[in-house]
């Protein structure tokens, strides 16, 4: 059966399921988790996502792919069909299908399900790079996990709230590594491996992030002194984004937490404690 035939069959199956269950009931099951059926659906989907990602990781090993090819292919066909069916059901039962399709998780569902299904039956060993890329998009299914965690929404709100501070921090780091890279190029020069300013910037990024590959290193006394300062600066910089996001997380959790306090209009103290 061709990929288009599989898709056509899934569309027919999705329409039959919507008619059998009912659009409103199906929407509660798929988009909400406050019912036993909704919780079972989310649990089954979580297990499917994890198994699918494990399958993709194992299939990337050439030895395992060659030895268990007859097992990998039908399993991937099954997972692709199931996730494509889930995507179609979400579109068919949603009261706002276009809004869901344009949302982040709607795009994740599309990218991780339908494109890999369209490439089934095309050997990945061919020189068609786009086929291999589309198949690797299956790993995006791991992003679907975020839609089932309340904490993911808190983290999203915290990142959005701190985006300006983080942007300023990143711009500062970019300016800093450009200055440090240029300085090291002037101090060390080509004899030490700093053949250009971009190479110096690369060294500054590697050093300030405390990675330290060691493929380029200063040899002069002044260069090593500057490198020592950059290393110490790198450890100090690590704490900055952590503090920004932590403060935003605490604020987001405070806003989501229901407040039962009864503050005094004069002093602000909680009257429930007295």
Describe the structure concisely for a colleague.
By secondary structure, the chain is mainly alpha-helical. It has helices spanning about 5-20, 25-30, 35-60, 60-65, 70-95, 95-100, 105-120, 130-135, 150-160, 165-190, 195-210, 220-255.
Word description of this protein:
The chain is mainly alpha-helical. Helices cover 72% and strands 0% of the residues. The chain contains twelve helices and no strands. It has helices at residues 3-21, 23-31, 36-59, 62-67, 69-93, 97-102, 104-118, 129-136, 150-161, 163-188, 197-208, 221-256. α1 packs across α5 (69-93) and α10 packs antiparallel against α12 (221-256). The longest helix is centred in the C-terminal third of the chain and has 36 residues, at 221-256. The chain is elongated, with a radius of gyration of 26 Å. The model is unreliable at 124-130 and 265-270 (pLDDT under 50).
Q: Measured on Cα atoms, how large is the radius of gyration?
A: 26 Å
Instruction: Give, in order, the helices and strands.
Output: HHHHHHHHHHHH
Largest sheet, in brief, is:
none
Give start-end ranges of low-pLDDT stretches. Answer: 124-130, 265-270
| Helix percentage range | over 70%
Continuous helix count: 12
Average of the residue pLDDT scores = 78
Tell me the structural class: mainly alpha
Content of β-strand: under 5%
Number of DSSP-assigned strands: 0
Distance between the termini: 73 Å
Shape: elongated
